[in-house]
Amino acid sequence: MKLNIALLAGDGIGPEVIDQAVKVCDAVAKKYDHNIIWKPALTGAAAIDAVGEPYPDETHEICANADAVLFGAIGHPRFDNDPSAKVRPEQGLLKMRQKLGLFANVRPTFTFPSLIDKSPLKRERIEGTDLIILRELTGGIYFGERGRKDDGNTAFDTMTYQRFEIERLAKKGFEFAMKRSKKLCCVDKANVLESSRLWRETVQAMEKDYPEVEVSYEFIDAVAMRLIQWPKGYDVIITANLFGDILTDEASVIAGSMGLMPSSSVGSKVSLYEPIHGSYPQAAGKDIANPLATVLSAAMLFEDMNMTEEAEEIRRVVNKSLAEGYVTEDLADGGKSYKTSEVGDWLASNI
Amino acid sequence: MKLNIALLAGDGIGPEVIDQAVKVCDAVAKKYDHNIIWKPALTGAAAIDAVGEPYPDETHEICANADAVLFGAIGHPRFDNDPSAKVRPEQGLLKMRQKLGLFANVRPTFTFPSLIDKSPLKRERIEGTDLIILRELTGGIYFGERGRKDDGNTAFDTMTYQRFEIERLAKKGFEFAMKRSKKLCCVDKANVLESSRLWRETVQAMEKDYPEVEVSYEFIDAVAMRLIQWPKGYDVIITANLFGDILTDEASVIAGSMGLMPSSSVGSKVSLYEPIHGSYPQAAGKDIANPLATVLSAAMLFEDMNMTEEAEEIRRVVNKSLAEGYVTEDLADGGKSYKTSEVGDWLASNI
Ligand SMILES: CC(C)[C@H](C(=O)O)[C@@H](O)C(=O)O
Ligand SMILES: CC(C)[C@H](C(=O)O)[C@@H](O)C(=O)O
User: Fold this and answer.
1) Distance CA A93, CA A73 (A)
2) Per CATH, which fold does B103-261 belong to?
3) Mean pLDDT score of chain B, rounded to an integer?
4) Ligand 2 centroid to residue B102 C-alpha, Å
5) For the CA of A74, the nearest atom of ligand 1
6) Per-residue pLDDT at B132
7) Residues of chain B with CATH 3.40.718.10
8) Which residues of B touch A76 (CB under 8 A)?
9) Is the pLDDT score of B230 beyond 80?
10) Contact yes or no for B201 and A83 at CB 8 A
11) Where are the domain boundaries for CATH 3.40.718.10 in chain A?
């Protein structure tokens, strides 16, 4: 099969981890006789520096015409504490999500048997955790009207949701639930927010189309608690953009290492695959970042293309590297560790 | 000293836990020769049932004229999944916060040596945790404009902040930091939200007035993670209403039992003291709820009245009950446990 994949390395450790995913994908392509055509493009601070724009039109063209997008990370600390910065790398991310229509961010959370004791949570609380958070990604307070009034002394942001936005996300949630243990939890703040009440109303109206799915409704504050108390209590969670931003990061702690958690952002045309970790600027250029989350994101890419065997092959080799301790320093427990590029080479050569 | 305390038992287990706090306060008053005049008043579902309003004017009068308010919990499940309910118990809570001007919710998070192993988090991660979250409580998306458009198919909520709202909350944060380890963390989502950028700008401008305080700025998603990874990294956190709602509940998991965590909501005139747990309807009327969070909230009340010895006495007796295992079933580890009212009696008689 021929695959056009847009390659957005981004900032910080992005380029380094992306390089390893490319090696692994190329090895998979060779083994299964596919032809991957990589289309590199600029995003984030890197794109601001080069062309003054974090998500340039040329990048969008490349992504929109690709079969999928593989993405590293964006963000640079020099923008974070500067409230006056006019162009921010994150704007590129948001523009990309919106222009590509990536309405659902899919974040699986699971544990690796060999790493379970790295979690800050006790083993018995997390062993066997297997949940998916579906975060709405192109609406809500991320894209509502915002601004200043009153000489800049008042600032506002608007959380807006339309019924169809909730429906298409919830539909994905119900579909995932049907393929899994048929439990769906809608997380909101319906005791305060009108938009959350629309979420509840909309999901409730869809329940009849999925009579086998058991649906629950919980408040975001309660879930922020329960997710760490008893993550095994959840299967599929659907939630709004901002709530999902918070919950998915919180959930990533369960696994013990952010360096392992992949994600996809699904659109109606093209989908994007990225590690959930950020650009981790302190580690940039040092060849020490953990590439596994990006590699596992590539596995999600193959999975979504119905190339299940290829996806499994990637997961197998990742598990092998964990089992044999061929890992970067964050996972090495002070023992022998390998460079980012060495781990990438090892994974590719084991395929 | 004479103290007028408004007593708002509320819903669910509220009345039961409040009863125990009253016993303890009365015992303290007797020992230290104070005169507490309790002024009971209706709130929540209980008030809706009685007078059709979750925070009736008479209740407000009583609170506004009291020296302090002691509060149980409100909320009833019959309202939760009914998006069409016109009057909700929670509206009473919000109205109360607004009308009494309770702009800062103060939530300490700490561990009890005897309970540390009840936490889902590993001992070494949490031992010695001692942080305070200051949540803005009368602004933000809780009180902005909200509504429906487009035949009910679009819903919106507005997160609004004015500079003075941020300043008065931040001032409390700086003051707490000065009395503690001089570290303040402002938590926001300034990479997306305009209101968060106003938060950052405002707090940054105040830094010069507190040269000894080391201020950091972190994103809510990152803090949702770090708070469980390494809670000892935080001292005083200041944050907006919605973010605080989520973070304070999340932080409560650290201590291992929500049944232990007190809080205060500070206004310019009167302040309110309440356990952070909810109304826990399943346990209502069974005399099994843990009263310690409410009792410790009463300790915060005495502390704020500069009655430090009285506050210490309450904390001492609570620690004693924990050490001697005179506790409710949630803390009994399957061993001998006591009724809510028995724990209250025991505490009072040990003062
Ligand atoms: C960088 C930021 C704008 C972004 C978000 O909030 O969506 C990030 O936190 C994420 O979750 O992808
Ligand atoms: C009941 C609800 C409206 C309330 C809030 O969100 O403020 C509660 O969760 C709290 O934290 O006191």
Assistant:
1) 9
2) Isopropylmalate Dehydrogenase (3.40.718)
3) 94
4) 13
5) 1
6) 97
7) 1-101+269-351, 103-261
8) none
9) yes
10) yes
11) 1-102+267-351, 104-260
The CATH fold assigned to B1-101+269-351 is Isopropylmalate Dehydrogenase (3.40.718)
Annotation: CATH topology of A1-102+267-351: Isopropylmalate Dehydrogenase (3.40.718)
**Distance from the alpha carbon of residue B253 to the mean position of ligand 1, in angstroms:** 25
What pLDDT sits at residue B84?
A: 65
Does the Cβ of A90 fall within 6 Å of ligand 1? yes
pLDDT-derived band at B46, boundaries 50, 70, 90: confident
The residue among B4 and A90 whose pLDDT is bigger is: B4
Cβ–Cβ contacts within 10 Å for residue B209, how many?
9
Which residue of A91, A142, A186, A194 is the best one to mutate when testing the B interface, meaning the one whose CB has the most B CBs within 10 A?
Answer: A194
In the predicted model, is pLDDT for residue B82 greater than 90? no
**Known catalytic residue at B142:** yes
Say if ligand 2 is within 6 A of residue A229 CB: no
Give me the mean pLDDT over the B292-305 stretch: 97
What's the pLDDT tens digit per position in B148-172? 999 999 999 999 999 999 999 999 9
Helix (H, G, I), strand (E, B) or coil at B132: strand
Q: What is the pLDDT of residue A80?
A: 66
How far apart CA B319 and CA B335 sit, in angstroms, is 18
Single pTM value for the model:
0.94
Do residue A249 and residue B225 have CB atoms under 8 angstroms apart? yes
CA distance B78 to chain A (A): 12
Given a cut of 90, whether residue B329 has pLDDT beyond it is: yes
Cβ-contact B133, B107 below 8 angstroms: yes
How many Å lie between the centroid of ligand 1 and the Cα of residue A245?
A: 7
User: How many other CB atoms are found less than 10 A from the CB of residue A86?
Assistant: 6
Distance of CA A219 to the CA centre of its chain: 22
The answer to whether the beta carbons of residues A291 and A33 sit under 8 Å apart is no
Nearest residue to B177 (alpha-carbon basis) of B207, B202, B219, B220: B207
Beta-carbon-side half-sphere exposure of residue A160 (alpha carbons within 13 Å) = 15
B151 touching A (Cβ < 8 Å): no
Residue type, B88: R
Residues 76-95 of B with CB under 8 A from A: 79-81, 83, 88, 90, 94
Q: In which band, very low, low, confident or very high, does the pLDDT at B88 lie, cut at 50, 70 and 90?
A: confident
Chain B's closest residue to A196, CA to CA, is B155
* CATH homologous superfamily of A104-260: Isopropylmalate Dehydrogenase (3.40.718.10)
Q: What residues of chain B, 204 to 243, have a C-beta less than 8 Å from chain A?
A: 204, 217, 220-222, 224-225, 228-230, 242
> With an 8 Å Cβ cutoff, is B156 touching chain A?
yes
Residues of A in contact with B189 (CB under 8 A): 242, 245
State the 10-residue block means of pLDDT for chain A, 351 residues long: 96 97 98 97 92 95 98 85 72 94 96 88 94 98 97 98 98 97 97 95 98 97 95 97 96 85 94 94 95 97 96 97 94 92 98 95
